[in-house]
Design goal:
This protein is an all-alpha fold. It is about 75% helix and about 0% strand. The chain has 13 helices and 2 strands; from the N terminus they run H-H-H-H-H-H-H-E-E-H-H-H-H-H-H. A two-stranded antiparallel ribbon has the order 1-2. Strand 1 and strand 2 form a beta hairpin.
């Protein structure tokens, strides 16, 4: 276990290095932040002073070298717009994105596994066919359109839920959280539903496919032949085995929800990392964009590591060195 974790951490450093080089190089070619940060009527001397203050007057290779030196010390640069460390700006928005992502995945798992299991156990029922038809809609409908529709129906016409923003927060262990209060949950419900729709459809279809495959295997037939109650056959034997691939998919999808919450956060004006990075891209705030991508990549890697460990815990035959016992 220790060797496996150390090996994955070494791979993490390599991935972060490659990501930083690609992102830094791409942002360097996009445009000149000085043109956005200074007054359009400023003279050349003022532009030169701004470039020098931000370190943009140096060659790209030298800028990247200084960035790497700072990254090794935990410094990802200072935001051009906010005038504060970029990592600090990102971490301020991180709790909002995480609570939205976790709530979306909670809704997807809580609804997706029972619905998919039902559709897999009773495939010929009309209700099962309706569930699968709904999952196809979840895959097909664009996220931005669904978000606008949710706002129109539940916020504008019915007036049940707020349309934009984040609710009041309470601090737990130094982290501001909003979804633990009823008022905060009202603000988070629409964006989390919008974010959960695609993942819900994916979990439904995956659970159904696994259930249809597993019910035909010998261990299920043997459990039934022993006279075990149907609830025990499904809840213990069947569910435990279909959870192995589900854990992998859910872990990977959690990372994608965090990374791709940009559209949802923009539609609902949710003050998370996604909305921040969109604004930073328009402002060519390079340090914030690079810090965001590095944080997301690191979270992806840590989530994948956690999924691998959980996979081995669920199936003792799987070893962390990639072989089977």
């Amino acid at each position: 276990m220790t060797l496996f974790v150390l090996r994955r951490l070494a791979q993490t450093l390599l991935v972060l290095f490659v990501t930083s080089a690609l992102v830094f190089g791409g942002l360097y070619l996009v445009g000149d932040p000085v043109e956005i940060l200074v007054n359009p009527q400023a003279d050349q001397e003022e532009r030169a002073r701004t470039a020098e203050a931000l370190g943009l007057d140096r060659p790209a290779v030298e800028q990247y070298g200084l960035f790497l030196k700072g990254m090794l010390a935990g410094d990802l640069g200072k935001s051009f717009v906010y005038g504060r460390p970029a990592l600090e700006v990102i971490l301020e928005r991180l709790p909002a994105t995480l609570e939205l992502a976790f709530l979306a995945m909670l809704l997807s798992v809580a609804a997706g596994i029972p619905l998919g299991l039902y559709a897999g156990l009773y495939p010929d029922r009309k209700s099962s066919k309706a569930i699968m038809a709904g999952s196809i809609l979840g895959f097909s409908l664009p996220t931005f359109w669904v978000g606008l529709l949710l706002i129109l129906v539940f916020a504008v016409q019915l007036g049940w839920l707020p349309s934009t923003g984040r609710g009041p927060t309470e601090t737990y262990f130094g982290i501001p959280i909003s979804i633990l209060s009823l008022e905060g949950l009202k603000y988070a419900l629409l964006p989390s539903l919008n974010l959960a729709l695609f993942k819900l459809s994916l979990i439904i279809r995956l659970t159904r496919a696994q259930a249809r495959e597993q019910v035909l295997l010998d261990y299920i037939r043997f459990a039934r032949a022993k006279g075990l109650p149907r609830s025990r056959v499904i809840g213990v034997h069947l569910l435990k085995n279909i959870m192995i691939p589900l854990v992998t998919v859910i872990g990977l999808e959690l990372g994608s929800v965090i990374a791709y919450a940009i559209v949802t956060e923009s539609i609902f004006a949710w003050p998370g990392m996604g909305k921040l990075v969109i604004d930073s891209m328009f402002q060519l705030d390079r340090p914030v964009v690079v810090a965001y991508l590095l944080v997301v990549v690191l979270m992806f890697i840590l989530i994948n590591l956690t999924v691998d460990i959980l996979y081995a815990a669920l199936d003792p035959r799987v070893r962390l060195d990639g072989t089977r016992a």
